[in-house]
Each structure stands twice: as structure tokens, then as C-alpha cells.
């Protein structure tokens, strides 16, 4: 089914619309990179499966007549909703493993139609997986629900794609949950406003998904998570409409919003939210700063976060990360730094920030100091930005050649960071050597930073070959996650829990909290049909 009037179809396996594939030059660079780094010169590309190759199990439940007008059991629709966009999702598709497709997909056009789906599914004991853009990297949308259900269907919110109201005075908007990033910004632009939430998946993820996963966006400091940008939420639950007051803040007990923010489709279907807007920035200052020592650079970032300067971008890339993204040649660690404002020039902030960097041994690139609109698209920041946007389009081409590449992200307090980082990196490197018999590459950057600690984001590259990739990935993922748990880091800073992180999330959360969450699930979804298996083990009831 074409997306939002674009006339284009999303790829079943891969990022973006059909036809937006890696260029011959990108293929050449991937091949050359694998040869240079891993010494493998005879890679053969396994292409993504075509629709004709996809054979799905017969649906366990058919579309009831009452829902027929907005549901589909076509192969394309079922296959598109079978997986998210994680490394194991890609590997299984490239290996032609097509498991857990939903029995059918519902595309409701109104809250009444969502209610009709939920009512039918409760009666039929069928699991319902809410779906925004399907960009989950943690198994959040995979209809893998176990045998306690008669079937599983996906509820795609794509028709909920509008900005319904704008409050210019309080600078907020009422937005439907299925609105994708570009559509949201396009509707806000005529009002001179922006949501300014740019996850790397911006193009193909939705407001509802951002809220349901407690995602992390554009701002490196202060408003890091979507939580900070949400004023109130509206969701449909089995106990009726769950809608919070629009408030700038409230001390009235535990927050109703916060129970839904991060609920991963397990407590209700988010249909809309009032979100906080920003004026579009017109003042910008950005540059990059080189460091000879990663931990010294991290100390500098700590000083920055504790200075009260609050840079918009404060992304520390270790030297391999900088090289892999074409930001620098790999001889230094690079801090990409930027300030922005819709109200006032920010050069003074930048000057003070650079003073801190110099005091900590950093070398600002004065040639690249950008203090003009659009400056963030040039120099090291520009190179970083381009690589950041393009990377998702290259994953199937890289993995199709046998290179396992994935990321994991966490957060930790500053006093534990150096030892934490060194141990995690060493453990993942060692596991890659054990799994593949050759060295891999493990890089780190900070995506978000706080006065009390950073959110380090690790990428790893291991040449497993496609046939051994799932097993290899799982061994590396398990080693990293076990150690994150042991060292007191979170299993996720912004990618969410999904199904993949459950083992470690269950160890991380206090037991009484788990009991309270389970009780909330029972209260809001007594039959246990909403996205069973995320946040809590499946608990079919009813
Ligand atoms: C290349 C790439 C880059 C990424 N970069 C970032 C990043 O920078 N920051 C970040 O935070 N994440 C990132 N992610 C992860 C992912 O994009 C986020 O988790 C995003 O918030 C998911 O939004 P979505 O609309 O695609 O949700 P989906 O993937 O469709 O769903 C995610 C979860 O939310 C639930 N859900 C979705 N919509 C609703 C709804 N309306 N009501 C109730 N539950 C719902 C689903 O059931 C599921 O559990 C990235 C992923 C990829 C593939």
C-alpha cells in the first residue's frame, strides 16, 4: 500500500522507499572497507528478498467482516509488519527466514475503528501489535507472542497523520500519533514552528512510536528524551480513553503521562498527543574540536555539561567512529559542538565552550567555526550529519556481504564512565575475536550528555558471514548486555526494551516496580492482548 500520498511503497527489507538503494559507488566503498578492515576480498552480495520469494505461514485467523474495510492479509502488508529494523531482523530476512508475520494488518482511520479492532481481538483472544513506522530496533513490533493467543495482528496508525491544532500562545500542538517526522515538520513549518525532534530514524518513524519508546532526539543536553517535549497524551485502552490534562508541569502524584511514555504498545494505543513546539532557530554556532585522548575529551564534555552552557549538539566521537563516518582521518577523537537559538546570537556561548575545550587539551578547528544559518551542513558537522542520515540506507548492502554491524546504547554516571567504557569495549572486542576468529571494530560516541553522566553509544562490526550472523550477533549482544547489567549501566538509553532487551530489563528494574507495572497492565489490558512480551512476559488472560 503506497505511503501517505507519496505513491511509493516502503521496502520490506531495508530502509526507506523501494528504489532508494545504495549507489554503485556506495557498494564499491562497502566492499573496499570490508577488504581493508577484515581482509575479506571475495564477498558476494546476498540481495534483500523480493516479494515473490516471501512465503508466509497461512493466517491463523481471518479478517472478520466488521473490520474488512480497513484490513489487509496481502503478502506485502503481512511481510512489511513481520519485523522491525534491527540487525537480527535484517539477518533473518536476508537469510529468507520469514517467521511471525501478523495474520492480518489493520489500518484504522478513526478511534472508533481502533476500538472495533480491540473489541474483536479481545473476544477472539488475538494479540494486537501497535505499529508506527516499524523502525524498532529491539523486536518491539515483531508479532512473536507465543501460543497463548489464537493469532496476532498489527495495528498500523498511518492514517493518524495530522497536526490537528496549534496553540501559538503556549507554543504547543495537538498531533496524531501516526504522523511521520517529515509530515510533522511540514505541517508545523507554515506556522514558523518546529518540534525539533530528529532521531536518526526521523524519516520513517512516528510521534506515537517516539512516545511509546521514550526515544531520544535532537538535543544533546536538557530536552534529550521525547518525555520533555510531551505536554499530554491520549490513548485508547481496554478501560476506555486515557487522556491527561495539558499542563506545563504537575506535582499531582505519579505522572499519568509518564506511565504511557515508554509503554511500548503494551498498555494502550496512543492516538494523539499535545507536544511542545520550538521557534525555528536562526542563530547557530558550530565547530569540531580534536583531542588526543578519548578520556580527556570525555572529561571536557563533563565540564561542559556542568558549566550550564547546554550545547544543542555535544557529540563526542572516538577516533574510529570519526573515521568510519568520514568526519576525520582517525588520528584524533572529535567533539562535534553546536549551539542554536531562535532568539539570540550564540557566539558568546560557543566562545566559552571553546575556552573549556582548550583548557582540557582540545584543539578547536577555527576554520570550521560556523556561525551562520546552514553552517551545520558544512565541515565536520556537515560530514557527520550526511553520514548519519545515509547510514540506514546501507545496512542491507553491508550485512548482505556478511558483515555484522549493530549498535547498543546505554548511560552511566561520570565517575564510573572510564572503567565502564574500557571494560565494555574490551569485552565486545574479545567476544568478536572468539566468535569470528578475527578482530572486529568497536567504536563509541556520546549521543546525549547530562551533568551527571553521558549516554555512550557503541557500534560494532564483526565479519561473521551471513549464514553465521544471527548466532554471532546474539553472542556479542549477550556478552555486551550482561556486562552492561553487571556494571550498572542501563540496557537502553533510548532504543527501548522491546523483546530483545527483556532479559536485562527484568534484572535492572526493582521487583516492586515490576509488580506495579504488571498490575497496571492487568488493569488497562485485562485480556493481555496488547503487544504481549514487551516490558512484561506475555500474560494472556480473559
Ligand atoms: C536507523 C535507525 C536509527 C534510529 N535512531 C534512533 C534515534 O536516534 N533515537 C531513538 O530514540 N531511536 C532511534 N531508533 C529506534 C526507533 O526509530 C525508535 O524506537 C522510534 O521511536 C520508533 O518509532 P516508530 O514509529 O518506528 O515505532 P515502531 O517501531 O512502529 O514501534 C515501536 C514501539 O512503539 C509501539 N508503538 C508504536 N506506535 C504506537 C502507538 N501509536 N501507540 C502505542 N504504541 C505504539 C510499538 O508497539 C512498539 O513497541 C532508530 C532506529 C533505526 C532503524
Can you give a write-up of this model?
- There is one protein chain.
- This protein has helices at residues 24-38, 75-80, 87-94, 111-124, 181-188, 207-213, 256-260, 294-305, 319-324, 347-359, 379-399, 417-436, 469-486, 502-508, 511-524, and strands spanning 71-72, 105-106, 126-131, 151-156, 163-167, 172-176, 193-194, 230-237, 240-243, 269-276, 278-279, 283-291, 313-317, 333-341, 363-364, 403-409, 441-450, 453-463.
- With 542 residues, it is α+β, with helices and mostly antiparallel strands.
- The strands form five sheets. It has a five-stranded antiparallel β-sheet.
- Helix 8 (294-305) packs across helix 10.
- The longest helix is centred in the last third of the chain and has 21 residues, at 379-399.
- The two termini are 34 Å apart.
- The model has no long low-confidence stretch (mean pLDDT 94).
- The protein binds flavin-adenine dinucleotide.
- Flavin-adenine dinucleotide binds next to strand 3, helix 6 and strand 10.
- Residues 84-85, 129-137, 140-141, 157, 177, 199-201, 205-206, 208-210, 212-213, 215-216, 264-265, 269-270, 392, 494-496, 531, 534 line the site of flavin-adenine dinucleotide (FAD).
Q: Sketch the major β-sheet.
A: 5 strands, antiparallel
Oligomer: single chain
Computed CA radius of gyration, to the nearest angstrom: 23 Å
Number of H/I helices: 15
Q: Write out the strand line-up for the largest beta sheet, numbering strands in chain order.
A: 5-6-10-8-9
The hetero compounds bound to this protein are: flavin-adenine dinucleotide
Average pLDDT, to the nearest integer?
94
Count of extended strands: 18
**Cα-to-Cα separation, first versus last residue:** 34 Å
Amino acid at each position: 500500500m503506497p505511503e501517505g500520498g507519496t505513491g511509493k511503497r516502503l521496502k520490506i527489507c531495508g530502509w526507506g522507499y523501494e528504489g532508494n538503494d545504495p549507489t554503485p559507488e556506495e557498494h564499491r566503498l562497502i566492499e573496499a572497507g570490508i577488504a581493508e578492515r577484515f581482509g575479506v576480498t571475495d564477498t558476494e552480495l546476498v540481495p534483500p528478498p523480493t516479494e515473490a520469494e516471501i512465503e508466509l505461514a497461512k493466517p491463523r485467523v481471518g479478517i472478520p467482516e466488521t473490520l474488512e474495510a480497513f484490513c489487509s492479509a496481502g503478502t506485502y502488508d503481512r511481510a512489511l509488519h513481520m519485523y522491525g529494523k534491527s540487525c537480527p531482523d535484517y539477518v533473518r530476512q536476508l537469510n529468507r527466514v520469514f517467521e511471525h508475520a501478523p495474520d492480518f494488518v489493520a489500518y484504522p482511520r478513526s478511534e472508533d475503528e481502533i476500538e472495533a479492532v480491540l473489541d474483536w481481538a479481545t473476544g477472539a483472544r488475538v494479540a494486537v501489535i501497535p505499529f508506527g513506522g516499524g523502525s524498532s530496533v529491539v523486536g518491539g513490533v515483531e508479532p512473536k507472542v507465543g501460543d497463548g493467543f489464537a493469532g496476532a495482528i498489527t495495528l498500523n496508525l498511518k492514517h493518524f497523520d495530522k497536526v490537528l491544532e496549534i496553540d501559538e500562545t503556549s507554543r504547543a500542538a495537538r498531533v496524531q500519533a501516526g504522523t511521520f517526522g517529515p509530515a510533522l515538520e511540514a505541517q508545523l513549518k507554515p506556522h514558523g514552528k518546529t518540534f525539533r525532534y530528529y532521531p536518526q530514524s526521523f524519516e520513517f518513524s512516528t510521534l506515537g512510536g517516539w512516545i511509546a519508546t521514550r526515544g531520544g532526539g535532537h538535543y544533546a543536553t536538557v530536552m534529550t528524551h521525547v518525555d520533555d517535549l510531551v505536554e499530554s497524551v491520549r490513548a485508547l485502552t481496554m478501560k476506555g480513553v486515557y487522556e491527561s490534562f495539558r499542563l506545563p508541569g504537575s506535582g499531582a502524584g505519579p505522572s499519568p503521562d509518564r506511565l504511557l511514555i515508554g509503554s511500548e504498545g503494551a498498555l494502550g494505543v496512543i492516538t494523539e498527543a499535545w507536544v511542545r513546539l520550538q521557534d525555528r532557530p536562526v542563530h547557530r554556532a558550530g565547530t569540531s574540536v580534536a583531542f588526543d585522548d578519548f578520556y580527556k575529551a570525555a572529561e571536557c564534555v563533563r565540564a561542559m555539561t556542568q558549566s550550564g552552557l547546554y550545547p544543542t549538539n555535544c557529540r563526542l566521537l572516538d577516533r574510529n567512529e570519526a573515521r568510519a563516518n568520514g568526519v576525520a582521518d582517525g588520528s584524533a577523537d572529535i567533539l562535534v559542538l553546536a549551539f542554536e537559538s531562535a532568539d539570540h546570537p550564540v557566539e558568546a556561548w560557543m566562545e566559552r565552550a571553546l575556552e573549556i575545550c582548550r583548557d582540557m587539551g582540545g584543539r578547536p578547528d577555527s576554520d570550521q567555526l560556523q556561525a551562520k544559518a546552514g553552517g551545520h551542513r558544512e565541515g565536520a558537522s556537515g560530514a557527520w550529519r550526511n553520514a548519519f542520515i545515509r547510514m540506514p540506507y546501507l545496512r542491507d548492502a553491508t550485512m548482505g556481504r556478511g558483515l555484522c554491524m549493530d549498535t547498543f546504547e546505554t548511560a552511566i554516571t561520570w565517575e564510573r564512565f572510564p572503567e565502564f567504557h574500557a571494560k565494555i569495549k574490551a569485552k565486545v572486542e574479545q567476544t568478536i575475536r572468539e566468535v569470528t576468529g578475527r578482530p572486529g571494530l568497536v567504536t563509541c560516541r556520546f549521543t546525549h550528555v547530562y551533568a551527571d553522566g553521558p549516554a555512550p553509544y557503541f557500534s560494532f562490526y564483526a565479519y561473521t558471514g551471513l549464514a553465521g550472523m544471527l548466532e554471532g550477533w546474539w553472542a556479542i549482544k549477550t556478552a555486551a548486555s550482561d556486562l552492561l547489567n553487571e556494571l550498572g549501566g542501563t540496557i537502553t538509553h533510548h532504543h527501548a526494551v522491546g523483546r530483545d532487551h527483556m532479559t536485562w530489563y527484568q534484572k535492572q528494574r526493582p521487583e516492586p516496580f515490576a509488580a506495579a507495572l504488571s498490575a497496571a497492565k492487568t488493569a488497562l489490558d485485562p485480556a493481555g492482548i496488547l503487544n504481549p512480551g514487551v516490558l512484561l512476559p506475555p500474560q494472556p488472560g480473559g
